[in-house]
User: What shape does this take?
Amino acid sequence: MSQNRIPYLINNFAATADELSMLRLEDSSDTSVYIQLLQLRGRRSEEASYFRFIEEESGKTECDVRKELTFINSMNPPIEINLERYFIYGAYTLNVLNEKETLLQWIDRLSRYLFLRNRIIQKFEIERMPFSVFEKDLTEARNLLSGMLSNSRKKELIQAIKEIRPDLLENTEAFDKMAVDMHLSVNVLGFVPEEYVSYHFWEKSVPERLEYVSDRLRKKIGQLLNQEEGREVLNNKYLTYQALKPLYARKIREMNADGGYPAFAKAFCENSVLVKKNNFQSLGKEIEIIEVTESTDLHALYERIAVNGRYFILEDLIRPHPDLKKLNPDSVNTVRIVTFLNQKEVVVLDSFLRAGRRGAFVDNGGSGGIFIHVDPEKGITDSHGIDEKGFVYESHPDHAYRFSGRHLPLWEEALNTAKKAALSVPGARYVGWDLTCTEENRWIIVEGNAMTMYIGQQATLDVGKRKELLEVLRL
Assistant: This one.
């Protein structure tokens, strides 16, 4: 690893020397380094929240926790007891240093639960056995979990569902039961809390849940069907733009420490309104519209943005088609078209529309966006709307625009644009393309997703598509 690259990464990614010492930098691309950096920061943030929750509930400090973890693992348990397990399964509620018998019982219960978890995953995901084969294992795992799941973990899980199910906050028994059910769906079945909520899993049996594509499965599919070279492009917005420039129909500028302020100022000489994005982020994070006027202090603006790193992109503002603007005039409302490149042709697997909320520029689910399913053959919306909090809408909640039965403009062009994109990124066979139609009556690419989620395709129709997807992909 060239030492000359260390200052480059510090300047461009706002990384610290301590963070970089924890990463695998040798032969890693900028994209790989930044993804590692995001993961590291995510882990550290999660650890900090664990320590905070533990101290609030038990009074044990970080120093106390680390001392207890060292003691537990010095006993050579059959499984490693890390901070996450210590927090989730309630070891901090025990008198670890003085009640060895109680601690050993806790280790036995956790070991049994994790054994069952791994056996269920093996039977369902690897061997694809029916639910009846592992039903008893799941029941035993649920019973073990009921006596182990920490109050802090329960509160953490219920945060995702409390808006649509406020009754849980007033009923301790229902609260505990739901939290255990959510944890099983996350930890054993592979769904994230947002999926549990969006799919209304509290109303569905386990066999019904197993009909859905889980977050764990969609990641496995992305890893299996998209080679590293393809993921490298799609995880980097500027590289995607370079690969698909004719399909973008707008200019995107790469900003970095080498170009610095002069490149930034030049961009705003070309266009006074630009969209700033983090080149590697997803879910609509770190996106903002920047409008420069005669009174704007460009130097101050650049320094404000560069606090989070001098590597970002500036792209021309998209002017949406009037039909898409009706959904929400404040956001660029997009369509996700999922394509699969088989041995012969590009197959369109599914599609859905996203509508932003009033005052929001982005339409992502994490920003309050609403999903509406689109018939991929006809280009007509054929569902109600639903958001990641689980709320269902017949019409847009900010105005009276009815969702179902809407014809999207120039749908054949949308499909053809997605298919052209699918043929243009070597090593990428399974991609979720975000597109929008412009006021010039042209469908353009907004970005590509190598690990496309499946919430919009399933939650909108209240139907699981696991079997259908695996059959088409021949997995």
User: Anything to note?
Assistant: Residues 30-58 form the longest helix (29 residues). The chain has a mean pLDDT of 92. The CA atoms of residues 131 and 207 lie 6 Å apart.
